Amino acid sequence: MALPTTRATFKEYCLRSLGKPVIEINVDPDQVEDRIDQALQYFSQYHYDGIERVYLKYQVSAADITRARSDNSLSSVTDVDGSTSAVWKEQKNYIPVPSSIMSIVKVFPLNQGRTTMFDVKYQMRLNDLHNFSSTSMINYEMSMQHLDFLDHILTGDTAIRHNQHQNRLYLDMDWQSDVVADDYIVIECYRKLDPESFGDVYNDIFLKKYAAQLIKLQWGANLSKFQGIQMLGGVALNGEQIYTQAQEEINKLEEQIQLAYELPPMHMIG
Hints:
Elements: H1 7-17, H2 29-46, E1 51-59, H3 62-69, E2 74-78, E3 84-88, E4 94-96, E5 101-107, H4 120-128, H5 137-154, E6 159-163, E7 168-172, E8 184-192, H6 205-223, H7 239-261
Antiparallel strand pairs: 1-8, 2-3, 4-7, 5-8, 6-7
């Protein structure tokens, strides 16, 4: 059995599972492509093997900073009756992110690399850790946890907002002092797995079943308009039955993916 590793072989695999070439599958090639896209979208949305956890970096440009500083200001609008009302401008404190990003979990602190000689952590390493044989790592670890807790309470983490349909990561911070041009922003996120780069995605057992049933559903929908028509030899088309069988299988597969393959929602919040 030839295992599908490309979109073309995956398409032929799904059609063969429905009976091709013994049975003519009455589905247009464009409809098959649409159903494969639908299956891949559902697979990446709900299956834990359809995404990957990655760390991405973005270099902030001067244009990003200029755009972000231009928002959060009021503009005056004169109404028809002559009255003036204040309107908020659209927020522009964002950086672009790839469309393959499903969810952003966190943004790493932007000032990690800006350590000076006046920094508390720098002084601890300079004065207290010059000789590991006389310094307790337990005290050092407790001190670092205490400093991290104070930083969390007094400074806090950068608030982030992201929607996968906007392709933007909003950073609610002081763009005038917290970041400078050419700084790197590092994010932890979940990204769709590209099947063209990783062909084994097409060989996933769930994806093969789900895509085949979507094509079968389309097949049944196409034939349902010819319900009751007699073909040569007395054969009657039964598109309604094909459609119903496919819908039942799709319902079972979607229930299965939510119970066995979906990540807990808390893992995707960010």
